[in-house]
Amino acid sequence: MVDAAWVIGVAFAYLSLLFAVATYGDRRARQGRSVIGNAWVYALSMAVYCSAWTYFGSVGRAASGGVWFLPIYLGPMLAMILAWMLLRKMIRIARAYRITSIADFIASRYGKSQALAGLVTLITVVGLVPYIALQLKGIAVAYALMTQMPGSATGGAAPWWADSTLYVALALAGFTIVFGARHLDSAERHEGMVAAIAFESVVKLLAFLAVGGFVVWGLFDGLGDLFAKAQAVPELARLLSLSQGKAFAYEQWFALTMLSGLSVLFLPRQFQVMVVENVDERHLKRAAWVFPLYLLLINLFVLPIALAGLLRLGAGANAEGFVLTLPLAAGHTGLALLAFVGGLSAATGMVIVEAIAVSTMVCNDLVMPMLLRTRRFQAAAGSDLTGFLLAIRRAAIVAILLLGYLYYRLAGEAYALVGIGLISFAAVAQFAPAMLGGMYWKGGTRAGALAGLGSGFAVWLYTLLLPSFAKSGWLGRDFLAHGAFGWELLRPEALFGLKGLDYLTHSLFWSLLCNGAAYVVVSLWRAPAARETSQALLFVDVFKRTAVAGPVFWRGRAQVADLLPLLGRFLGLSRAQALFDEHARRRGLAHRDALQPDAQLVQFVETQLAGAIGSASARVMVASVVEEESLGLDDVMRILDEASQLRAYSHQLEQVTDELKRANEQLKSLDRLKDDFMSSVTHELRTPLTSIRALAEVMRDDAEMPAEQRQEFLGIVVAETERLSRLVNQVLDMAKIESGHAEWHNSDVDLRALLTQAVHTTEAMFRERGASLSLQLPDALPTLRADADRLMQVLLNLLSNAAKFVPTGSGRVELRLDADAAGVTVSVQDNGAGVPADQRALIFERFRQGGDALNRPQGTGLGLPISRQIVEHFGGRMWLQADAAQGACFCFTLPWQTAAQPDETPQGDTK
Amino acid sequence: MSHKVLIADDEPNIVISLEYLMKRAGYQVSIARDGQEALDTIRRERPRLVLLDVMMPRKSGFDVCQELRADEQIKDTLVLMLTAKGRDTDVNKGLGVGADAYMTKPFATKELVAKVAEMLGAAP
Question: What is the C-alpha separation between A197 and A349, in angstroms, rounded?
Fold first, then answer.
């Protein structure tokens, strides 16, 4: 027996230590150096699963049922090892859509439904009250054991105002508020709390191991000795076997394992630490084995302690208190205090996290939606609501703890601790179909979820909760024995005649059956509405959608001037402004004033708001300040299509980027060529301009210039102007052909007629130079599909070149047309000086002119390159004959199957 | 005493206009139509200033300028580079090879004449 003052003193000291750890964690978080961004802390925080149940309940269970305490821990171990992928998806969804509680998760998934949010919250509150009562009971029992003589009755007989447990509940409420409801965080992160939880996980593990070690090696001579002594006693030997002397109840083992496996996912405190407080998805991998390991370690000594207690203290002692009474009986008060602290720690951790999680749900998903309906609340637009929300949360925390105390008073004696806890497990298990279905089945609808949850909850109430009241004497026991209204088939523990199952398995079976069946049937009955479909897509496909910007399922009109104050009401104006600024930055804008009130901004605001007041309420609030157009199913599909096209495009873009990288060098060199081309063009253009300008200025400034000279100069100006025009036209022509923007007007060309016409056109030029032009044509020829004008351009170019370069007076040029199966060949042979060897390659380059540099005839240097481009456009080839005997012979071929398409215009693709 | 000015450009019409301008300004004018001819004429006639086009056959204006500066006997000839190439790189290159001034075509006649006068005026 320990002095009460000691016990209370140590308790307070420990809680203050926890508070200090939490404050430190919060301070570090504010400084940006989070202590919880660490996989170990994350994994340890999950151990909040182990509450007073572990410390006291398990040992008690082991003492009466042997290894039957195990399934409660096997379930979570299996769940973590096998289902961490499930958890990862939950985390991804929660992070992407700023979901802060289970109620929010379910409500958001099924179309941001306020009804669902309320129902889930209700189930949670009702379901968890027994669990909180369990913790209070554990603390009460522990305290009593520490401060009273062993064997005396535990508390519960005192009137409520003198019941120390009440004050314990209130004290815990106070601590919880201090830990988690000092300010609103739009992400619902409580870094200090998580740090404290991780710390207390370590403390409770060490304390339990210490007691276990003491028991096994202090009181006995090791495990072997202990088990040998236990085997010697027949009742205890029974505990060691699986069958417990009866047939092994497989179904019960299975049910318990499954139940606890589900609970590790769906208990509000587990959701809070595993999903909401998660900072990095990758921490999950570590947690997937650390948490099961923790569970293994903390359960290592449960059975030994139970056996030791039964051996030492007899079968009549309160087994749940063995962890304290064994050290006390051996005179080790220090160890007993340590164990007490461990148990207190376990209970406190659970209560704090659970109460915070539940109060968040109550505030966001129960109270807020109701308040939003009242006109007075909406009318108070513009006022800062952060203080109000905080007050609601704090009130909820106190209320939950008081409810827990109430249950403890009313029904705490009915079951052992473990029994009470299992009732709560069965309640949160009702979330399984709606949540799991919601994450993997797009067909789940809001109506289905409502039906499933409603029916599951009702069955749970009837088969578990009410019987617990009845067994405590607060309800008549008649309905237990004979069913409601006297109908035997409705006996709560043998519904429809299903006998032979223990009450828990029975309840679990019926509740999950009704739940699941209602969910599936009602979901399939009617198609989901547009909003449900869009949410379903966002949830089920979250891994596909969060990589690229997801589709925005919103349409309507909004104003920034409305959205910013709205966010400010719930998060505080400065924080709202900061969030807007960050959003603007992320979208590449300088300041939040540059933000356009588009669908993306509205969705951003709604998401941020959801973190503070839940997605259902957020939707309502946003809808109140914007003009939203209701989305039909078609709209959802269309938006989705656009988004998936965008994704496809971005994927294609990624591939193209790789190709572009490879082509980069090539582009650079082309760029250099282009620069040279531009440089050449400007040079060529500026040259005639220079003469024009200079001569014009000269004529302007010299009024007394002789008329002859003036005429000469004017002649030059005119000629240079013409040269300039020609050049500009050719450059444009060249550019158009090369870029594929030229117009091609194709027809069936009679080549014989074309060549004849070309000869006629150049007659005058040849006569001037005293040169002769002969024409050689085949007799008959099919027509060729090409652009006649362009071909004429080529012919004229070649002919005029020839005319320029033949010697005056004795020039001879022959124009020849040949045809064969593949196509036609046109050749222009002249008897001029020919092209020198070093110029053969250059001749087809832009701005290069052949011939003697000093006697270069007037030309632009672009004729041949353009001609070549034209010929190549039609699939042909142009070249300078290599072995011409004398002079130059320019030839080109055109295939019969030219590349011409009918009337290509720049609108289509020409090349 | 009138200075000797050499016009080196392959474009006949530009030569015509430059010749007129320089003659009107009172200088003695000679003409070269490619780079090599320009150097030969410089060596032979020792003009005080050269109006040097860059884009010429056989030797470019840059080459002429470089060789000019490298030749002891003619390295002090004043060089005014004239060209249609106006990019910064070209200007720098021209000044880099030793041109005394650089003007882009098309030029304003008044400016050209003034520049030439300035360059010749400053010369001893």
Answer: 6
Q: Which residues of A touch B107 (CB under 8 A)?
A: 690, 693-694
B106 touches chain A (CB under 8 A): yes
SS3 (DSSP) at B53: strand
Please answer yes or no on whether A690 and B105 come within 8 Å at the CB atom: yes
Handedness of CA A546, A550, A554, A559 (dihedral sign): positive
Question: CA A602, CA B76: separation in Å to the nearest integer?
Answer: 76
| Minimal-distance CA residue of chain A relative to B53 | A687
For B46-63, b where at least 16 C-beta lie within 10 A, e where not — what string? ebbbbbbbbbbebbbbbb
B17 touches chain A (CB under 8 A): yes
> What are the structure tokens assigned to A86, written together?
């499930």
Strands B49-53 and B28-32: unpaired
Chain B: closest CA distance from residue A708 (Å): 14
The string of pLDDT tens digits covering residues A800-809 is 888 888 888 8
Q: CA-to-CA distance for A163 and A142, rounded, in angstroms?
A: 15
Element spanning A829, H or E: strand A823-830
Residue A540 and residue A109 in contact, taking contact as beta carbons nearer than 8 Å: no
Q: What angle do CA A246, A66, A59 make, to 5 degrees?
A: 150
pTM above 0.80, yes or no: no
Q: How many residues does chain A have?
A: 911
Does residue B44 sit at the A interface (CB-CB below 8 Å)? Answer: no
pLDDT tens, A837-865?
777 877 887 776 665 544 455 666 788 88
What residues contact residue A728 under an 8 Å CB cut-off, 6+ apart? Answer: A685
Q: Locate tokens 């072995």: which residue?
A: A883
List, for residues A421-475, the tens digit of each pLDDT value: 888 889 999 999 999 999 999 888 999 999 999 999 999 998 888 887 777 777 7
Chain B closest CA to A654's CA: distance in Å? 37
Contact A441/A137 with Cβ under 8 angstroms? no
End-to-end alpha carbon distance in chain A? 99
Q: Which residues are CB-contacts of A17 (< 8 A; sequence separation ≥ 6)?
A: none
Distances (CA, A) of B70 to A169, A826, B7, B49, B73: 102, 52, 20, 16, 9
Angle at B95 between CA B93 and CA B99, to 5 degrees: 120
Contact residues for A737 (Cβ-Cβ < 8 A; gap 6+): A866, A869, A870, A873
**Measured between alpha carbons, how far is residue A24 from residues A21, A39, A830 in Å?**
5, 19, 97
Contacts of A39 (CB under 8 A, 6+ apart): A280, A282, A283, A285, A286, A287, A290
Place of tokens 């015509």: B16
Measure the CA–CA gap between A458 and A510, rounded to whole angstroms: 10
Pick the residue from chain A with its C-alpha nearest to B107: A690
> Considering CB atoms only, which of A690, A702, A719 is closest to B14?
A690
- Cα A809 to Cα A73, A774, A806, A897, B86: the distances in Å are 113, 15, 9, 41, 42
Q: Other C-beta atoms within 10 Å of A807: how many? A: 15
Token reading at A704: 């007394």
